[in-house]
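Tokens in:
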């Protein structure tokens, strides 16, 4: 992978930008915002996608595959993700030409300019929390510019250009780029040490969050429940820290959570209590909503109006997203790729599955995470799902590691009868269809391409019902 060099200068003026990896949810959103600015946009990705076709329909020049010939002669700036290889031919040619070559976070920094910025950071819940804040702000009559890590269901997009001075982003801690932004209000959902390939040590990871929070110009909104967030909070000297959660010490207190169906709960702040009911399930979404409301209050909005606005949030793509029901079996997809996220997703599914069972279809993400956490994944999957089907590892930016496959996860189950490892996708879809019965939920889990197996699962379910 290419680590971002945040010391590189960001051009003052961009007229034609080329995006390497333009099909990703974050990169496609940035490319769309460049188009909004009247900037010529081109880009490439290794496979075609609906996002690429949508950008092409708006006037972008897009290419499938990476080739030096795809870099247009008029491009003055090249935007890349950390996931591309240093040998990428478009990247190498851009360097050879002496173009501005910047990381996606630097392109986002350029777009933000000097606007009032809300940055949402944390190991889990960033995309949902960002979606809640954006949806709520629009419900409150403002139109912020935003860049999210996933499509906001009610808006159908992951980014948008508004006419308000407010800018809302999902800020990435994985490579330290959240320290690049001039944040006004910082939301920290939780701090669960991950991405140690960048940070090296857990202490450095925590210190990164302390630095991020201390730089916020107006307020820091941080979980009172999460142990990692509490550790970060002890290192803060910021004058305006707002805590949220179920802990009795929280400034915005979350109580009376009911998870039977769409989650309901109470929020208390400044002596006032407001009842809330979301359109999405899961106790973790009550926590996400509490953080979003705390941000809105920090921005100056009334508590009850903020709660009502957050209630309008309809979810984000790849966060417990229903894709189809066949033979009475509901097939969902969730982006969860860390044990904590998997537990939250499956716990949410449990609250709405009723008497049905939960069948997890898990794709481990990256060899390094699988090697480090395969026992934790096995424990969470065995505890929260009735049966698990494990696929092979999605390597993403990493080279294969000998001996590290999905079988590491399945082999760590206490009861082998609860799990089945299948490397071949069609065989996995067929097996899942034979296990599932009327009323069950199948939930694909992972931030790789596991969602692409869903059509095969639905087709296999249809065949087994014939």
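Residues out:
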């Amino acid at each position: 992978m290419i680590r971002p060099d945040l010391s590189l200068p960001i051009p003052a003026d961009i007229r034609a930008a080329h995006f390497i990896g333009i099909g990703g949810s974050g990169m496609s959103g940035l490319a769309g915002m460049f188009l909004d600015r009247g900037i010529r946009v081109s880009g490439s990705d290794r496979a075609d996608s609906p996002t690429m076709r949508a950008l092409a329909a708006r006037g972008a020049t897009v290419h499938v595959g990476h080739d030096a010939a795809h870099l247009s002669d008029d491009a003055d700036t090249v935007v890349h993700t950390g996931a591309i290889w240093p040998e990428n031919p478009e990247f190498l040619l851009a360097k050879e030409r002496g173009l501005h070559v910047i990381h996606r976070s630097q392109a986002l920094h350029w777009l933000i300019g000097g606007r009032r910025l809300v940055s949402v950071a944390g190991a889990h819940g960033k995309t949902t929390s960002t979606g809640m804040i954006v949806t709520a702000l629009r419900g409150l009559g403002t139109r912020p510019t935003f860049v999210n890590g996933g499509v906001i269901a009610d808006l159908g997009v992951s980014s948008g250009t508004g006419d308000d001075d407010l800018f809302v982003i999902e800020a990435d801690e994985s490579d330290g780029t959240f320290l690049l932004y001039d944040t006004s209000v910082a939301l920290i959902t939780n701090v669960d040490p991950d991405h140690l390939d960048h940070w090296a040590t857990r202490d450095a990871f925590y210190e990164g969050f302390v630095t991020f929070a201390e730089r916020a110009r107006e307020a820091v909104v941080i979980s009172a429940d999460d142990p990692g967030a509490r550790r970060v909070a002890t290192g803060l000297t910021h004058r305006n820290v707002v805590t949220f959660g179920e802990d009795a010490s929280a400034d915005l207190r979350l109580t009376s959570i009911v998870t039977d169906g769409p989650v309901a709960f109470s929020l208390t702040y400044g002596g006032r209590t407001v009842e809330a009911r979301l359109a999405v399930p899961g106790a973790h979404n009550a926590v996400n909503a509490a953080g979003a409301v705390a941000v809105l209050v920090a921005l100056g909005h009334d508590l009850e109006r903020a709660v009502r606005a957050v209630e309008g949030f309809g979810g984000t793509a790849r966060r417990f997203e229903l894709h189809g029901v066949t033979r009475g079996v509901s097939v969902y997809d969730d982006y969860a790729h860390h044990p904590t996220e998997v537990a939250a997703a499956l716990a949410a599914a449990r609250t709405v599955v009723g008497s049905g069972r939960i069948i997890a279809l898990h794709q481990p993400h990256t060899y390094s995470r699988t090697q480090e956490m395969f026992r934790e994944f096995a424990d969470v999957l065995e505890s929260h799902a009735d049966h698990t089907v494990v696929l092979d590892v999605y390597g993403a930016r990493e080279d294969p590691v000998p001996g590290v496959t999905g079988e590491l996860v399945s082999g760590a189950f206490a009861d082998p009868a609860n799990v089945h490892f299948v490397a071949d996708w069609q065989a996995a879809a067929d097996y899942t269809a034979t296990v599932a019965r009327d009323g069950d939920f199948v939930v694909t889990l992972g931030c790789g391409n596991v969602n692409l197996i869903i059509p095969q699962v639905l087709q296999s379910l249809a065949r087994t019902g014939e």
